[in-house]
Amino acid sequence: MSRQVSATINGDAVDFLCEPEETLLDVLRDRLALTGSKEGCGSGDCGACSVMLDGRLVCSCLVLGAEAEGRVIETIEGMADGKGLHPLQRHFLEQAALQCGICTPGFLVAAKALLDRDPEPSETEVRYWLAGNLCRCTGYDKIVRAVLSAAAEMREA
Q1: Tally: H helices and E strands in the chain
Q2: For residue 49, which phi and psi values (nearest 5 degrees)?
Q3: Cβ(69)–Cβ(55) under 8 Å?
Q4: Which of 15, 79, 97, 155 makes a 20 to 30 Å CA pair with 33?
């Protein structure tokens, strides 16, 4: 039996219907057309589906859509400011920190969560924080450099 859920997603009040077994990832992608979050593994091991849920970084494949009731969700779609890219997004592009793009939204959401908590992380802290995100195409060095350079730019702004 479908359940009606009300949540705030990327700053907007949203109502949707979902089945009891549907994950938050399924709801975001299939019901709300927010297709930025990707399913890489379906078991919470890769981080491709990472979103912020009430200020906490979670794998949306491990959260039921019905659990979003009354919650605040931030996805990759809410990261840019209108047409202007977030510094993290821009630095990922400039430093070629992506290839196929499956993991990129999860890395960006996780990196933003880190920089929101710690605007001046060390390389070790960035690597530790992003350890829950897997990339099968690139090395991690470009990703870490992009996060560190975006952090530096954000501190100067």
Answers
A1: 5, 5
A2: -100, 15
A3: no
A4: 97
Single-letter code of the amino acid located at 71: R
CA distance 109 to 89: 10
Show the domains of the chain with their CATH numbers. 3-78 (3.10.20.30), 87-156 (1.10.150.120)
Give the side-chain half-sphere CA count within 13 A for 137: 11
pLDDT in tens, the chain (157 residues): 999 999 999 999 999 999 999 999 999 999 999 999 999 999 999 999 999 999 999 999 999 999 999 999 999 999 998 889 999 999 999 999 999 999 999 999 999 999 999 999 999 999 999 999 999 887 799 999 999 999 999 999 8
Q: What share of the chain is helix, strand, coil (3-state, %, to 5)?
A: 45, 20, 40
What length is written for the chain?
157
Its pTM stands at 0.96
Q: How many CA atoms lie within 13 A of 52 on its CB side?
A: 23
* E-only strand ranges, 19-81: 50-53, 56-59, 72-74
